[in-house]
Write a structure and sequence with these properties.
By secondary structure, the protein is α/β, with parallel strands linked by helices. Helix content is 45%, strand content 14%. The strands form two sheets. An eight-stranded parallel sheet has the order 1-2-3-4-7-8-9-10. The protein has a two-stranded antiparallel ribbon with strand order 5-6.
Length: 314
């Protein structure tokens, strides 16, 4: 029986369709990386900004699950963050439950721990294991955050009249004494520079400006460069990449990283919110987004592996 002949038009359409399918699945600088690419980016990476349960708002993972996910992805370390409760104890438990990954906690100086409270920071250093490492200036209770959100409620101040308050300087002194890492939290851009300048003066060796470009901090490049000159790293967080503003936000981050210099920058996820990507997966997506904007693989590794290791004293 004679085989029907396909018309030249039919053959052409088949070739075009096959080519389109190939291009759709091929890797290009503008496309999301493969699972293998994500695995390579996460191997040895350190995420200093992971939210988890137990918390007072819904989270996608608890602290033990976050540690296991990071371990299974080949990451080196994570820092568990909670706005209202210290996490050194949770880090201790996570290390026991998930051997093979470094897990750290910290304290966020909001009203629940007494605000700018040097005694609370001292206690952090005494928790079993000694895995409390980061001290964030106030976040959701920061005066800058409360004013930015136009709320009428108590807040925590770090400065007055352009000068740091004595209790802020006392907290920074405890951070220096115990070789902890200072993070600026949600204070204003100008206050953030004041805080790291005082940290530098008191000999704090490890400092980071918390998500410097995000609200309510909103640092410009000049502020970031001033903070970096005092010895602080500048943190850029991925957060959710599914929002309408995410592409423009990634563009701004890539531009700022080039201007500040990758050697002064740290990448992290700031994930764990219910409904968003899991922290490790979102962290990989963030790194891919920067690669797609021309940030080199070497610089992404520097900002996600070497620089956070230096911050944590690893």
């Amino acid at each position: 029986m004679r085989t029907p002949q396909r018309s030249s038009a039919s053959v052409s359409l088949t070739v075009i369709a096959a080519a389109a399918l190939f291009l759709a699945n091929a890797e290009s600088p503008g496309q999301r990386g493969s699972a293998a690419d994500d695995a390579a980016l996460l191997k040895g990476a350190i995420d200093i900004h992971v939210h988890s349960d137990p918390d007072n708002v819904p989270r996608s993972v608890d602290g033990l699950e976050a540690a296991k996910l990071a371990h299974d992805k080949g990451m080196r370390a994570i820092v568990l963050k909670n706005h209202y409760d210290p996490t050194a104890g949770l880090a201790f438990l996570a290390r026991k439950a998930v051997p093979g990954i470094e897990v750290f906690g910290g304290i966020d100086l909001n009203l629940t721990v007494g605000g700018m409270n040097p005694t609370a920071v001292e206690h952090l250093t005494q928790v079993a294991g000694g895995w409390g490492r980061l001290v964030w200036m106030s976040t959701f209770d920061a005066e800058n955050q409360v004013r930015y959100s136009k709320e009428n409620r108590p807040f925590v101040s770090v400065s007055r009249g352009g000068q740091l308050l004595p209790e802020t300087r006392a907290v920074i002194g405890v951070i220096a004494k115990h070789n902890l890492a200072l993070a600026t939290g949600h204070v204003s851009a100008a206050e953030g520079v004041l805080v790291v300048r005082e940290g530098h003066r008191q000999g704090v060796a490890h400092m980071v400006v918390t998500h410097a470009m995000n609200p309510p901090v909103l640092m410009d490049v000049a502020h970031m460069q001033a903070a970096a000159a005092e010895g602080a790293f500048i943190e850029f967080v991925g957060g959710s990449l599914t929002t309408a503003d995410a592409p423009a936000r990634m563009d701004r981050f890539a531009d700022a990283i080039r201007k500040v210099g990758p050697r002064f920058c740290i990448l992290s996820s700031d994930l764990g919110q219910k409904g968003n990507a899991l922290p490790a997966d979102g962290f990989a997506a963030f790194m891919q987004a920067l690669l797609q904007r021309g940030i080199s693989r070497q610089d992404v590794d520097l900002m996600s592996k070497q620089n956070p290791a230096r911050l944590l004293g690893l």
